[in-house]
């Protein structure tokens, strides 16, 4: 029995890196995970790999651009339809910009 048995978790930025590892760990602990990202091929491949290891009903991928409200609505609807009510959210997605500190805009 895992620490997250029966939980449903939405993870943004889950196609690679930290988000991918969170999705793998949560699934290994019994959670059903919805992997969200804009990197469709990578995200779908990771979800397929997790589903192969943890079970077909344990991982799905959906495209989610975190700056688009309609993508959020679609992701939550997908999670509810596939797994049931959402128990957790990992807001892992981010944008890296490499500017000099003095030329970085305040926004």
Features:
four-stranded parallel beta sheet, alpha/beta, 4 strands, elongated, Rossmann fold, 107 residues, single chain
Q: Would you mind describing this structure in some detail?
A:
With 107 residues, the protein is of the alpha/beta class. The protein has one domain: NAD(P)-binding Rossmann-like Domain (Rossmann fold), CATH 3.40.50.720. It is 39% helix and 18% strand. It contains three helices and four strands, in the order βαβαβαβ. It has helices spanning 17-28, 40-54, 69-83; strands spanning 8-12, 32-37, 59-63, 88-90. A four-stranded parallel sheet has the order 3-2-1-4, sandwiched between helices. Strand 1, helix 1 (17-28) and strand 2 (32-37) form a beta-alpha-beta unit. The mean pLDDT is 93.
CATH class: Alpha Beta
Distance between the terminal alpha carbons, to the nearest Å? 45 Å
Main pleated sheet: 4 strands, parallel
- Any idea what the radius of gyration is? 15 Å
Structural class computed from helices and strand pairing: alpha/beta
What is this structure's SSE topology?
Layout: E1 8-12, H1 17-28, E2 32-37, H2 40-54, E3 59-63, H3 69-83, E4 88-90
Helix pairs in contact: 1-2
Would you summarize the structure shown here?
By secondary structure, the chain is an alpha/beta fold. 39% of the residues lie in helices and 18% in strands. It has a 4-stranded parallel beta sheet, sandwiched between helices.
């Amino acid at each position: 029995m895992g620490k997250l048995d029966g939980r449903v978790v939405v993870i943004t930025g889950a196609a690679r890196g930290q988000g991918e590892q969170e999705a793998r760990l949560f699934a290994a602990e019994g959670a059903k995970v919805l992997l969200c990202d804009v990197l469709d091929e990578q995200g779908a491949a990771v979800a397929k790999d997790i589903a192969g290891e943890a079970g077909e009903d344990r991982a799905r991928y959906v495209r989610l651009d975190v700056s688009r409200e309609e993508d959020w609505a679609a992701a939550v609807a997908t999670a509810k339809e596939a797994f049931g009510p959402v128990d957790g959210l990992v807001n892992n997605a981010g944008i890296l910009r490499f500017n000099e500190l003095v030329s970085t805009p305040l926004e």
